Description:
The chain is mainly alpha-helical. Helix content is 71%, strand content 0%. The protein is built from 31 helices and no strands. The chain has helices spanning 2-19, 24-43, 52-55, 58-74, 87-95, 107-130, 134-160, 168-193, 204-224, 227-248, 253-271, 292-299, 310-318, 332-340, 342-365, 371-387, 396-413, 417-434, 440-472, 474-477, 484-489, 499-507, 527-545, 552-565, 570-581, 589-597, 600-603, 606-622, 627-636, 639-652, 654-669. 46% of the residues are buried.
Amino acid sequence: MIIRLVMLAELVAIAAALAMPEDLRSWVMVAVVLSTASLIVAIFLPTASLGLAKLLRPGLVIILATPAFLMALQAVPLPIGTLGNPIWATASTALNEPLAEIITVDTGATMFSLAQYCAVLAAALVTAVVALDRIRAGQVLHLLLSLTTIATALWFSRETNGAAGPDGATLVVLGVLVSTASAIRSVDQLRRLRRPGTIASAPYPALIAAIITMIVCMAALLIRGNLASIVAALLGSGLLLSVFAIRRWFLGVWGTAGVLAAAMIIFIATLTVIPLRTNTDPTIALSTSSQTATERMLQDVGPAGSGAGASAVLLPIYRDAGASALRERPTAAATVVIDMGWVFFCGVLIVAMLGAGALIWRSLSRVHDYSYPALGAAASISLMILAFADHGVLGLGASLSAAVLFGLAFGQSIPGAGRDALSLESKEASDRAADPVPASYPKFASALVAAWPRVTLMVLGVTLMTQALWMFVPEWYLGGRPSLSRIVSTATTWPNGMSKPASIAAAREDSWIRGGSKPEANSTSSAGDQETALPELSNTLARALRSSPLRGDIWLMLAAASKHGSPQPGTAAMLKMSYYTAPNDLDLLPLRLSVALATDAVVREPEFRDLIKRDVNLVVAHRPALRPALVSAYRSASADGKTYLESLISEQDPSYLDQVRARHFRQGSR
């Protein structure tokens, strides 16, 4: 009953990740479900699961915990002059308050990445516990078969409508691999049924389901997939078929070596079919989409990266003006390099290759059910190829599905786990019967073996539950202080177009409060309420910048709030941070021009004059839809600001300058 409940929890978590958008609700649901599953397994761990201690050796635990430790280390304050990102020193100067230097550029994004990794690790370990039993392992395989079939159908329909998710192709490739492994397992069961004295149900339904899934997934890849995903699916399936051929016909050493050598030759030859980008970073060599901003980010990567989840924060800064950030997504390999650095990425590749080799070895050494470890090895090879082609491997749904697959593979790669647990139990019973007072050391060793998997799963479950609370209860994290969206709503009636960037900032709140509801604006706010909201808004914006200093929209709102309240010397510094952290965000351009042109100290500074000139030239020459913003900025500009704006417009379009003046005089005479 407990195992079925755990399997249902994993099904709910993966289904939520696949069906729901990657917002706060889906993250919280996945974290809560998987933490509950981990705690249930840790508390009610069956005796047969003691074999998990053979898998969770100290070395493997250290390897699995290293990414989480490094992510947490990125958000820890570091001594000055070390690996800390220089943005924190710049932000400290602009805010006129001390800020500790840390590696990540966004602590909220790093914490979300850490939560995703913990969820993936929990899904893998829980599945490994369930898969120690052969019958349960078959049920998990059939569950994966059903999920990948449904995910493939959904991806194909969304791809046809132009609304496919980023992890769709990865799920389709996993579907091809799972169906191939299921078909091999069914064929192997049919062979055993032919032996005399064997009594078991024929696996024809599973074989038919595997064939149907394989046809559906391959058809979807051939119709809508790119060449890299097709090659990844074929190479993974080829590895599975190579293991099947070795087990079926070539049991000797030379036969095994010959088949593996032929598979390696086919592998290298197939990779040459994929068109590679030349003169570019190797992490985006297989990508078929535009990676201009990604290439710029890769050129600025530090030795420790920019922080887990930082690539999504940095992408709007490096993209071209007016380009949509949704059109470009860094590949998974490039994302890992940007977030964690080259050393970490090379370590991941080495661990993946060693893990694939270990799974192949265990697959060839097993008597039965060798398809499970072979499936894990094939998935390692295919996902490594996909990591250099697109971003899908890091999607929430795809990463959880891959975690369940690897948990199944490693759980079934443990030789005789159930028998070891039973023999351990019987040995303890016999020792108690022979010696009523056993020695303390064997008793302690047995207790340690039994407690090791429980402690690991319990720590992981508690960590995930804590992260879910951190995501779901922002008031708890903020110490009961009002959220950014609530304070921004009180300022929606401010002059000079403050409402639009306020709504943008409210919609793009810090990652630890995103997904929250936005209260409606109170249009009857009095002037006294607005003046009271100004310092409150400034404090809230400054608090958000202490965890995410690359938020150009918040820097702009803080500069505008400072200008409307009581002009301070820091207004220019905040405005400059907005220019440098969001140089190509056209949504911020109207308010940014209004604030810049209304401040004489800004207009007189040569550096700001160049920045203002860039924005005005962009509007006049390339973005005519934003020309009304120039009229609004001209109306609120100071005397020096009006003069400078007139000179800029006259250089680009003298006729439009007459229109700006005419509209200004018409609106002023009303």
